[in-house]
TrEMBL record:
This is DNA, SC020. Transmembrane segments: none annotated. One of its GO terms (molecular function) is protein serine/threonine kinase activity. It holds the Pfam family Pkinase. One of its GO terms (cellular component) is nucleus. Coiled coil: none annotated. PANTHER family: OVARIAN-SPECIFIC SERINE/THREONINE-PROTEIN KINASE LOK-RELATED, SERINE_THREONINE-PROTEIN KINASE CHK2. It comes from the Eukaryota. One of its GO terms (biological process) is mitotic DNA damage checkpoint signaling.
Amino acid sequence: MTPARCNLKEVSFSHLFPAEVARALVGGLTLAIAYMHSRGIVHGDIHLGNILVKLPSSLNHLSIKQLYEEYGHPETVPITHRNGKPLPPNIPAKAVLPLYLGKDAEEFSLSDAQIRLSDFGETFNPDLEPRLGKDCHTPLAARPPDAWFEIQTSLSYSADIWSLATAIWEIIGMKAIFSSEYTSVDEVICQQIDVLGSLPLEWFESWGKRDLYFDDDGVPKDGRYVWSSIDGAFEEGVQKYRRKFGMGEFDGEETAAFLDLMRRMLTFRPEERPTAREVLQSRLMVEWVLPDFERSSQMG
């Protein structure tokens, strides 16, 4: 694989991509997932840490001197023995720290929006090697709910579609649709219900910790924090920050198309989610995302 510049997680933490760059990144990611699915492969671990940014071609033309001028000289740290003893002869006296070639999200231009999907350790062919829900290792905030409620059922391409939706949201916004701060499965399930609406009844009734968050009618318990619905989450986690930092707010038409696609991709029942091909055929992709992706591709 071509060396990467950085991953999207580290450059977008507390930062926003310009709107056209965000669209181009979303287009590249969706096309990559669609290609994998067309080859019969589920990625199984889609999140921003596994989406790498391609190194700029201009780097190949820099001399060593120019490289140091642009990115700084190598930094070293001394290596010492924890017990204070002299180092063995096969251990170097210094270590060179990795060079960070990334830049903050707001500094990205369309020419930078060239990505590489990485980490194929969780990939599988659902027709040849079934992957049960209980064996899903996608980070909690990006994990599809069927992995929790149908632990003995095989996952398929629809699991990627859910995780892809969470990645798309995080690329275009300041805040993820489901908070990655929580390590409890039950807290994430609670948040998913607040944002998206009621679980399928059989899932809700089988959820052992539901009484901590909801009454028997599915109404949030008094005193707990209630997350905003998907429309409110978009306003609070995307639009508000884009207005505040002048990073390109989405107009009414694009917002409607975006939320429509998110609702379809984040449908609780996996069989009701669109395929990757259908995602690419959505209005959001055709009218806004793919045109900016094509523009970025011509610059790469």
